[in-house]
Amino acid sequence: MPETRHLFGFHPVTAALRARPETVRAIYVAAARRDRRMQELIERAAAAGVVVHTVDDARLVALAGNDRHQGVVAVVAGGAATATLAELLDGLQEPALLLVLDGVTDPHNLGACLRSADAFGAQAIIVPKDRSVGVNATVAKVASGALDTVPVITVTNLARTLREMKERGIWLLGADAEGDEDLFTADLSGPIAWVLGAEGTGLRRLTRESCDRLLRIPLQGTVASLNVSVAAGVCLFATQQQRARH
Fold first, then answer.
1. Which of 77, 111, 142 is the last residue of a domain?
2. What digits encode the pLDDT tens for the residues 77-136?
3. Domain of residue 222, CATH code
4. Within this chain, do residues 122 and 198 fall inside the same structural domain, yes or no?
């Protein structure tokens, strides 16, 4: 039997039915919920030939692993959208725009980073195997469908992966509060991989030293730093904004 994973919540399940209905093996819905939103999801599932099972809340909690399922859980074939880094880079038809997350262990942050990556055109998120959150149902829920459009590529040795990216002509831009370049005036052209660390600890020393340039996000208020998912969104937006002007 192929590997499966669980999606929960209306947005992720609807996104899977819309983008990759052939991967949805079954959907479980709350017996007590019969509103219009649920009916539309059931109708979409029926149109895609997906079996819908009506179950109680205890079953949904067991499937989702929490009680934030909104009354719907889907069993989806295969893992999230994945590829090797080499395959991804070989298939690009435009300059690379990648997001590297070093030491991000909160699934909510990874899910939010996926949403930013999807929104601003990043082709993939790269994470190390160790000291990093894996893709799970919470990540999928927070990502609101972006997990099915943005590959999360897990690598065994991040430092080696960064070297390989540089060998392919990709500039590694580290987001760092002590960076010597201002994000809003820096040159963001060409193939780029943004490298971000966990909030609080920031980039690890070896990762920081692997970056070609270190850029800071100019902050106008009193806070000293941004959540990693917010910082990722700002960096990706600034890159696409500059590219659109050229």
1. 77
2. 865 555 688 888 887 778 999 999 998 999 999 999 999 998 898 999 999 988 888 888
3. 3.40.1280.10
4. yes
**Residues whose CB is less than 8 angstroms from the CB of residue 14 and which lie 6 or more positions away in sequence, other chains included:** 41, 44, 145
Same domain for 57 and 124: no
Beta strands in 166-218 (DSSP E): 171-175, 181-182, 192-197, 213-216
- Return the higher-pLDDT residue of 148 and 154: 154
Q: Could you please report the per-residue DSSP string of 41-78?
A: HHHHHHHTT-EEEEE-HHHHHHHHSSS-STTEEEEEES
Which of 168, 145, 152, 184 lies closest to 96, judged by CA? 168
Q: Are 109 and 135 in contact (CB under 8 A)?
A: no
State the CB neighbour count (10 A cutoff) for residue 197: 21
Q: In this structure, are 68 and 177 located in the same domain?
A: no
Residue-number span of the structural domain to which 43 is assigned = 4-77
Instruction: Classify residue 35 by burial, with Cβ atoms within 10 Å: 0-12, 13-18, 19+.
Output: exposed
Q: Please state the pTM of the whole predicted model.
A: 0.72
Tally of domains in the chain: 2
